[in-house]
Design brief:
The protein is of the alpha/beta class. It has helices spanning 60-75, 86-89, 97-115, 119-123, 142-155, 170-180, 198-202, 222-230, 244-253, 263-266, 269-281, 295-304, 354-360, and strands spanning 5-21, 24-38, 41-47, 129-131, 133-136, 159-163, 185-188, 212-213, 235-237, 258-261, 286-288, 328-329, 339-341, 351-352, 361-368. The chain is built from 13 helices and 15 strands. The chain binds 2-succinylbenzoate and magnesium ion.
């Protein structure tokens, strides 16, 4: 597989509904798309970096910088036997997994398309449908939260995740349990707590949550070990799992009982497969996280989530919760049973609507094999 040309797009789209986490509220999403060409085919990827460095240190601007200055010369004009070889080829560049992942994932799409196979087949997926859950942000009131949960349950989503932070935690969980009973429910703190909050977080135990996601800092493993010993709710790590190796160490230390996989966070599909397999070997269930992706990243996520150890519903929901219209056709939707079909056409298996991409684009760059721009 020869990668002959790379196109980058810096895009901005308004969100259908605002999204608020412990680090702030967003009304729109800034993101980068990569399109690669080779041997008469194209492959698309979406970087999950946001316009700000609050979830991760990477931003759209760092992704742009690192790709154009350092990563593009390592892939454009190069021949790869298999997309699993892309991430190792970028090893010289430290961290910047989101920048690496967008290229690596586009390479998987290109490869699968060239093979005439859906991406899920070449990734090792075993499901034809994936279980879908939703992530509900922090609201202005508990009444609004209950209303949102009600709407998403009616749409069929199999599990509800609510974002929490100090001051928006026990009462929110209490209200949702009181109104909806024993539904599959979890919380995500996005690193808003400290180990000194352990006694407070233990008050979530009676609510029988599936898990608490990333209660402590984005670079912490060992305080999570101490916290997991002090609370009954299983801890799931998101932000802390930057690499497969950190995943291995977190499991060995007992920092979590569940892991959230986002391919953008760990450097792409190959690293996600390795993390998935590592977790399977240790009987740690995984589920697929979400980053408010457009249909391009969302389609990638669906294919990856078809692997067997994605045993819990992911944060992969219908397109219409995020962007209308989405950048792809057909839009991604859920069935009444709360599942999403894995596309069966070659590659990511959805059509990228170039006119919509261009309309959302604020900056565009082409890099060819001679390094010409
Ligand atoms: O922590 O999972 C997270 C969105 C942006 C940054 C971090 C997170 C999220 C979500 C959104 O929870 C999930 C979705 O795409 O619906
Ligand atoms: Mg999270």
């Amino acid at each position: 597989m020869k990668i002959e040309r790379l196109e980058l797009f810096l895009c901005r789209l308004p969100l259908v509904q605002f999204f608020e986490t412990s680090f702030g509220r967003s009304y729109e999403r800034e993101f980068i798309l990569a399109r690669i060409e080779g041997e008469g085919h194209e492959g698309w990827g979406e970087a999950v970096a946001e316009g700000h460095p609050y979830y991760s240190g990477e931003t759209t601007e760092t992704v742009w910088h690192v790709i154009t200055q350092f990563l593009a010369p390592l892939v454009v004009g190069r021949e790869f036997a298999h997309p699993r070889d892309v991430f190792p080829a970028l090893k010289r560049v430290r961290t910047h997994n989101m920048a690496k992942a967008v290229l690596e994932m586009a390479a998987w799409d290109l490869y699968a398309t060239g093979q005439g196979q859906p991406l899920s087949a070449v990734l090792g997926g075993t499901r034809t449908r994936i279980a879908s859950g939703v992530s509900i942000g922090i609201q202005d009131s508990l009444d609004q939260l209950v209303e949102k949960v009600d709407r998403e349950r009616a749409a069929g989503y199999q599990r509800i995740k609510i974002k929490i932070k100090p001051g928006w935690d026990l009462d929110a969980v209490e209200r949702v349990r009181a109104r909806f009973g024993n539904i599959p429910l979890m919380v995500d703190a996005n690193a808003a707590y400290q180990l000194s909050d352990a006694a407070h977080l233990a008050k979530l135990d009676p609510y029988d949550l599936m898990m608490i996601e990333q209660p402590l800092d984005y670079d912490d493993v060992m305080d999570h070990v101490t916290l997991q010993r002090a609370i009954g709710t299983p801890i799931c790590l998101d932000e802390s799992i930057h690499t497969v190796r950190i995943g291995r160490d977190a499991i060995a230390a007992g920092a979590c009982r569940i892991i959230n996989i986002k391919p953008g966070r760990v450097g792409g599909h190959q690293q996600s497969i390795e993390l998935h397999d590592l977790c399977a070997a240790h009987n740690i269930p995984v589920w697929h996280g979400g980053m408010l992706e457009s249909g391009i990243g969302r389609a990638h996520n669906i294919h990856l989530a078809s692997l067997p150890n994605f045993r819990l519903p992911g944060d992969i929901a219908a397109s219409k919760r995020y962007y209308v219209p989405d950048l792809i056709e057909p839009a991604i939707d859920i069935a009444a049973d709360g599942t999403i079909a894995v596309p069966t056409e070659p590659g990511i298996g959805v059509r990228v609507m170039r006119d919509r991409v261009e309309k959302a684009t604020e900056r565009h760059l082409v890099i060819d094999a001679d390094g010409h721009r």
